[in-house]
Write a structure and sequence with these properties.
By secondary structure, the chain is an alpha+beta fold. It has one domain: ADP-ribosylation fold (Alpha-Beta Barrel). About 30% of the residues lie in helices and about 30% in strands. It contains 5 helices and 7 strands, in the order βαβαβαβββαβα. It has helices at about 15-25, 45-55, 75, 100-105, 120-125; strands at about 5-15, 40, 65-70, 80-85, 90, 95, 105-115. The protein has a 3-stranded antiparallel sheet. A hairpin with a 6-residue loop joins β4 and β5 (about 90). The longest helix is centred in the middle third of the chain and has 10 residues, at about 45-55. The protein is globular and about 50 Å long.
Length: about 130
């Protein structure tokens, strides 16, 4: 039997969101906050790095992380990708109320594939 087709996606997160992912056994993203109507996983590692390094390290504990995970393609087919900013800034926009169904379509575990500090951001800015 052929395994189902999956898409690999990335999600830049701060330390607070990462802790909630860990508490969910690395299998689900936490519910969105009231002022966050959209959950937006991104399609490329490089774009996720830019967000985690260049934005997440400016707030909170000044740490940013990139997560990688797989989602069933048959589920993702219901959503269009959106280009925001540059041509390589491609995201899926999942309505916040749909996040439980999104989580149910994650295959395997969510993993951390990169982490950044404020010093990493400063080095990238001056580099």
């Amino acid at each position: 039997m052929t395994p189902p087709a999956v898409a690999t996606l990335f999600r830049p997160v701060g330390s607070g969101e990462l802790q909630l992912i860990a508490e969910a056994g690395w299998r689900a993203f936490p519910p969105r906050l009231p002022d966050q109507p959209i959950f937006y996983p991104v399609t490329t590692f490089d774009y996720a790095v830019r967000i985690a390094r260049d934005w997440n390290t400016k707030v909170g504990d000044r740490l940013g992380h990139v997560t990688r995970f797989s989602v069933l393609k048959r589920y993702l087919g219901r959503f269009e990708t959106r280009i925001v900013g540059g041509a390589d800034h491609e995201e899926y926009w999942i309505p916040a109320e749909g996040l439980p169904e999104f989580n149910a379509n994650i295959v395997g575990l969510i993993e951390v594939v990169a982490s950044f500090t404020e010093a990493d951001r400063i080095a990238a800015e001056t580099g």
